[in-house]
Specification:
The protein is α+β, with helices and mostly antiparallel strands. It has 13 helices and 17 strands. Strands 9, 10, 11, 12, 13, 14, 15, 16 and 17 form a 9-stranded antiparallel β-sheet that branches. A 4-stranded parallel β-sheet has the order 3-2-1-4, sandwiched between helices. It has a 4-stranded antiparallel β-sheet with strand order 5-8-6-7, sandwiched between helices. Strand 11 and strand 12 (223-229) form a beta hairpin. It starts with 10 loop residues before the first strand and ends with a helix. The structure holds adenosine monophosphate (AMP).
């Protein structure tokens, strides 16, 4: 299929201005594009690097018209932007991934329903529209379970564990307290996974796709902490994950970069936790150890250019800098030599002025001759961070 190419020199639109939007913008500028960033928060990192900046609410109709006149294609850097805005923009230009894909993905119940009805492996789940259905819904799924808001949750926010029946009343109270009109929840079985994995897939408008290596992730309090690249384990497992990921994105008819978050069960079976319709925190290593990063692929895919060859140039370990972790770089008089002295360390800071608990402030990629060497370097850094 021949796809119209959006030429370098054009202006690309991105909805959302966090670090993923900033990294997309930098990748686009390197390929000769200009970028318009729309994010209501004037302090959002991508505004610092954008060619055109729209720090206004997403429901402003005048800005919609101005933004639409300016840009040749639109993408987004996270799934919690309004789908109706994407639908309105789609009347005038391509939105990639499409608003239809966004609508399926941004609601956990829709997403799990789509995956399950297409035969893809997911944890047992059931939907909930009023908190007093909680006990009945958990019985359908089985204990232990996890309840999540259907929309707008991320990094473990809006999630409640329900290990046993006696935990239901307190979670029910929490749902009542946080409920807003029309809110829905999903109850999932709490998976006894052996490890968490993820994999990036890029799919062009012509339907061609490619995947990145399977990686292993460690979370703390629901937030990604460490990514190991490539995931230790058999190549058969990596091939299975890649085939699964490509099939899911094909079935979605998605155009852009996608990430599948996976649980590996003790027997080796893979379950899909969730699909992100955008570059992913666990793919940041691609900036430092891949010939073409996930952000450059996002630019190529949405502009109808050929996708880049995926080539891993070195094993790596990525460590997120969360909240206070960033103090050693951001506070006057703090000593950041502990990190910068470690060989193979590549530092990324996102330019967020305020350090807040649980906030992603930056990350460090540690390169090594082997994954073990990269891991040792990451461990050395984490020890000095804790001291
Ligand atoms: P999420 O926001 O859905 O990606 O969840 C954040 C983290 O919570 C995941 O990376 C897992 O560590 C954990 N988690 C989410 N869903 C489940 C589940 N069904 N079973 C076990 N752990 C889960």
């Amino acid at each position: 299929m021949k796809v119209a190419v959006i030429e370098p020199g054009s202006i690309l639109g991105v909805l959302g201005g966090g670090q993923l939007g900033a990294m997309f913008t930098l990748a686009a500028c390197r390929l000769g594009y200009r970028v318009a960033v729309w994010d209501p928060d004037p302090e959002a990192p991508a505004h610092l690097v954008a060619t055109h900046s729209f720090p206004v609410p997403f429901n402003d109709p005048h800005i919609l018209e101005r933004f639409a006149r300016l840009v040749s294609v639109v993408t987004y850097e996270w799934e919690n932007i309004p789908a109706e805005l994407c639908r309105a923009l789609e009347q005038q230009m391509p939105v990639r991934p499409s608003s239809a894909v966004l609508s399926v993905i941004q609601d956990r119940l829709e997403q799990k329903g789509f995956l399950a009805s297409n035969g893809f492996p997911v944890p047992r789940f059931a939907g909930l529209t009023v908190p007093d259905q909680l006990a009945r819904t958990v019985r359908e799924v089985g204990y232990p379970a996890l309840c999540k808001t259907a929309t707008a949750g991320y990094d473990g926010k809006g999630q409640w564990r329900i290990p046993r029946e006696s935990d239901v009343p307190s979670v029910e109270r929490a749902l009542v307290e946080s409920a807003r009109p029309g809110m829905r929840w999903i109850v999932e079985s709490l998976v006894p996974f052996e490890r968490e994995l993820s994999i990036l897939v890029v799919r062009g408008a012509d339907g061609q796709s490619c995947s990145y290596p399977l990686v292993e992730n460690e979370h703390e309090e629901g937030i990604l902490r460490i990514t190991r690249v490539p995931a230790p384990g058999s190549s058969a497992m990596a091939e299975r994950a890649a085939a699964l990921a490509c099939q899911v994105v094909d079935r979605l008819e998605g155009v852009g970069v996608f990430c599948l978050e996976l649980f590996q069960l003790p027997g080796g079976e893979l379950l899909i936790n969730e699909v992100a319709p955008r570059p992913h925190n666990s793919g940041h290593y691609t900036l430092d150890v891949c010939s073409v990063s996930q952000f450059e692929q996002q630019v190529r895919a949405i502009c109808g250019m050929p996708l880049g060859e995926v080539r891993l140039l070195s094993p790596a370990v990525m460590v997120n800098l969360i909240g206070d972790d960033a103090a050693m770089f951001m506070k006057k008089d703090a000593d950041c030599r502990t990190l910068l002295d470690i060989p193979g360390a590549v530092l990324h800071l996102y330019g967020k002025r305020e350090m807040r608990p649980r906030r992603k402030m930056g990350h460090v990629t540690f390169l090594g001759e082997t994954l073990d060497q990269a891991l040792d370097r990451a461990k050395q850094f984490r020890r000095t961070m804790r001291d």
